[in-house]
Amino acid sequence: MSRLVKNEMPYLLWTIKRDVIDYHNLNGDQMLNHYGKTASFTTKIGLCVNMRSLPWYVQANPDSFFPRCYGLCTESEKQEFLDDFRRTVASSILKWVVSHQNLGRIRSKSRKEDPKSSDPSLRKDPENADNRFRGLPGQLVDVACKVCQAYLGQLEHEDIDDSGEGAEDLSEAEWNDLIQQYYSLVHGNAVISDSRSYFSQCQALLSKITSVNPQTEIDGIHNIWIIKPAAKSRGRDIVCMDRVEHILELVATEHPATKDNKWVVQKYIETPLLIYDTKFDIRQWFLVTDWNPLTIWFYKESYLRFSTQRFSLDNLDSAIHLCNNSIQRRLKNDKERSPLLPGHNMWTSSRFQEYLQKRGRGAAWGSIIYPSMKRAITNAMRVAQDHVEPRKNSFELYGADFILGRDFKPWLIEINSSPTMHPSTPVTAQLCAQVQEDTIKVVVDRRLDRNCDIGNFELLWRQPAVELPPFSGSDLYVEGVNTSKARKPVPHLTTFNLDVLSETQALKAQGSWPGPESVGMSSTALQEDWKRESARVSSSWTALVPKPAERSCRARPGNVLPAYNPPRVESKASRSGLAKAQPTKPLDPTLLSGHPLAPVLHAVKPSESALSQLSRAPVLPRDLRAPCLVCRSALPPAGPCKRCRSFCASVLQGASFVPLGGSGQQGSPWSP
What is the pLDDT of residues 560-579, one digit of tens each? Predict the structure, then answer.
């Protein structure tokens, strides 16, 4: 079958290992049963760290459903664990005093009811122990009470205004002495002399601690901690220890290059709910179909996993305290275990509810256990939401492990990705196949029909859509003013073209420059007209362009015509020679009536014979520019005058102008 579809693109990918498929290269319509970056809650170190941030996301206390945990990867974490261990030692001493006082009352009541009892243990009080028991001074209880008082002050923030010399600040030698006496009290044959006188004080302190610390009940008096690898599963390398020096020694023996994030230490639940004196845990499935918005589906059915051994705190063997099926399936059931437990060590949640019903606690499942597991999973997922890569069109089924306390309160231990679906027992053979089928109903069938059958899944949590920020890095921006390239400077309006002036002087010396009398006007009248026109043009251009420091050149007397340099001269035309005059439009006679040089222009009467001589006129030198008679500027070799669009400028834009008659010198391009 695989050879038939190996070249086809799959639209539903279900794999046990997430790293087998690169989900970044999948198409948008391909479904995958894994999300990326889920280590924030599927690893022990990730769940340990993220649970501390729960109050920032949800108004809930993580200590109410998750046993306190520390990652032994830094010195600060180790110190926090050491402080917690020492505080637990102090509270355990108080619990020992209260429990033994209650035990003494029970034994006294038993002697009254059965005076012939021959049990020597019932005829002994802790205060009247024989020489086999070593008596501890009452000062041990005093020190423990001071430590607990200081701890309560920290929880109530009374240490903020403290000078720093608190009662809890014992020296290292005093702490070591206190811990060793505690070991002999709990694990040895020592007792506290006259512990009855401390009963009321210890009971009052424990009541206050219980009101502010929800984990006081599960701590017990043995101070047992469970040490786990930070990122392993199936119960591998997990051990239980009750001595702090052994725990720190285990961490210190690791290689320095691999010890970071290697171990996680978590408080062991010393008071679990037992079924026929056997410990168990609950495997609860839940499904996440989207992370934005966060959508969680809770499975109504779960199953219990029993240990193969009877429960005991005197033996810290993993076979007793770990209920993982991967560990228990390799062990044989203890002969002293109750025969009412199944041989395959599993119950369904329905069977467990029947058990509670027979014990008169049938309501505990629906009122305490089931809703508390829902809240714990919802809180854990809301904390991890910001760390997971929210790929659309993906889903993932998770398995959460819970342990119940004596008060039926569930405690979240860990969350597993890719939970086992192996039908190793009749219970898993039924439920694992069912949960996989129901998962397909939710992720596939429900996309087409919102009202379809979803099996035993129920919607646990769906939040409104959260808009993710477009960029999570640094917010960089540039402030300033836009600058542009400076324009070229404009030449001064009053600057004369001295080159043309020198050229005109040379022409005058050769006798080729036309005089003002050549056009039928006197030199004085023509110069007056030029001055008036030059003043008018200069004033108009000065109003448009800012005028810098003015430079001027006084024209020499005589018939020399100074050339005016325009602010911007067109230079696109070729300078190889002056083009021929070719008027493109008939001249409107009305244009001449208002021109200052109207008398001069009316005197100009070109003839056809003169126009025919235009082609035979000699060409001016290459660098010679013809002056404009109106604005006195030098014209380019080809192109009209940009200052005045007059008839005179149009005539003078060619290689030569038409001879207009008179007494000028023949053969000169400037003579009429």
Answer: 444 444 444 444 444 444 34
Report residue 605 as tokens. 């009467």
Q: Which residues lie below 8 Å from residue 485, measured CB to CB, with a gap of 6+?
A: none
Q: How far apart are CA 414 and CA 233, in angstroms?
A: 10
CA distance 165 to 168: 8
Residues in the chain: 672
What is the number of other CB atoms lying within 10 angstroms of the CB of residue 378? 19
Both tokens of 258, joined, read 């691999």
User: 257 is written with which tokens?
Assistant: 């290059």
Lowest mean pLDDT among 1-5, 475-479, 634-638: 634-638
Q: Which of 275, 285, 413, 402 is nearest to 351 (CA)?
A: 275
Q: Please provide residue 329's backbone torsions phi and psi, each rounded to the nearest 5 degrees.
A: -70, -20
pLDDT tens, position by position, 445-478? 998 899 999 999 999 999 886 666 665 666 677 7
Q: What is the largest CA-CA distance in the chain?
A: 169
Which residue's structure tokens are 């006197």?
A: 522
Tokens representing 341 are: 């437990």
Q: Return the residue matching tokens 């839940």.
A: 286
The two beta strands, 190-192 and 134-136, are: parallel
User: For the residues of 326-359, what is the DSSP string, one character each?
Assistant: HHHTTSPPPTTS-TTS-TT-EEEHHHHHHHHHHT
Give the Cβ contact number of residue 588 at 10 Å: 9
